[in-house]
Design brief:
Layout lengths: L1 E2 L6 E2 L3 E2 L2 H9 L8 E2 L1 H49 L3 H18 L21 H16 L6 H14 L6 H11 L6 H14 L4 H7 L4 H12 L5 H23 L4 H15 L1
Antiparallel strand pairs: 1-2, 3-4
InterPro entries: CFI_box_CTERM_dom (IPR049886)
Length: 277
């Protein structure tokens, strides 16, 4: 019989601690570990290591979440700085702040390397208003990169991203008008024209809501978000969208001819928005 150096119990034999178990225990704060212990202590130490590993993982995840939250809050100052630089025509500095802002979004929404930030990342109602900010950032970047021929690839990427995001924002008509004017002064007018084509292709058709509220209304934006982030994810939803596209133009024309119907339609749509939000 031998005495276990850890628990002091008399046992028939002692067992050596595995190196990986020792490492885990030391990481958890265990010190002065004997080289050999009894079977009961082995089991006890394995449970301790497993519990501490879970605690370490939880702590690491909490730290990552806290880091993401701090980054999310810091984005506001980056946007303010970039827009001040744009106003002062400090375009290089503005581009740096905008790129940092977009990098923060990649980290917060865990965009994988090689992938692109997409509007679907903002499907939570609390963050959908950020879509307009993102679209305005890509619009500014597109114009900034147009000032240097070596940034044509970056300008094209900004144009693609802008065409994808702008459809969910109330600034769509304003940006389109500016882009049409920009084609006459841009160094790379072909990229701007490609953006206009992509924007027209991506442009959603919320006929009834657009007629009732106007193209820039927040209600139209909310319905588009519901359509693209919810309805399109199911077969029934996609069939509903197709049916809607067939009948809604006629209803929209009717509303345009009989404006007195619009208040009632707006009330119904607002109730629908409240239900799906």
């Amino acid at each position: 019989m031998v005495q276990c150096p850890r628990c002091g119990i008399q046992v028939t034999e002692l067992h050596p601690l595995a190196p990986d178990l020792v490492s885990k225990l030391q990481a958890a704060g265990e010190s002065n570990l004997p080289p050999q212990v009894c079977a009961g202590c082995i089991s006890d130490l394995q449970r301790t290591a497993a519990t501490s590993s879970g605690g370490v993982l939880m702590a690491q995840e909490r730290a990552r979440e806290q880091h993401r939250l701090q980054l999310w809050k810091s984005r506001v100052q980056l946007i303010k700085k970039a827009r001040m630089c744009m106003g002062s025509k400090l375009y290089s500095e503005a581009a740096i702040s905008y790129e940092k802002y977009l990098k923060i979004l990649d980290i917060v929404f865990e965009v994988k390397k090689g992938d692109r930030l997409r509007p679907e990342a903002f499907k939570e109602s609390a963050r959908t208003t950020e879509l307009t900010v993102v679209a305005s950032v890509y619009w500014d970047l597109m114009r900034i990169y147009d000032t240097h021929d070596k940034y044509q690839d970056r300008m094209m990427n900004a144009a693609k991203q802008l065409a994808m995001f702008i459809q969910f924002t109330p600034i769509y008509p304003d940006i389109i008008k500016k882009a049409e004017s920009f084609t006459r002064t841009a160094k790379n007018p072909n990229i701007v024209k490609q953006f206009l084509k992509m924007s027209d292709k991506e442009r959603p058709r919320c006929f009834i809501a657009t007629s009732a509220f106007g193209p820039q209304a927040l209600e139209v934006q909310e319905l588009r978000v519901f359509r693209d982030f919810t309805l399109k994810n199911s077969l029934v939803g996609r069939r509903f969208i197709l049916a809607y596209y067939k009948i809604s133009p006629r209803i929209a024309c009717l509303l345009d001819k009989h404006s007195w119907l619009k208040p009632a339609v707006r009330a119904v749509l607002r109730l629908l928005i409240k239900c799906v939000s």
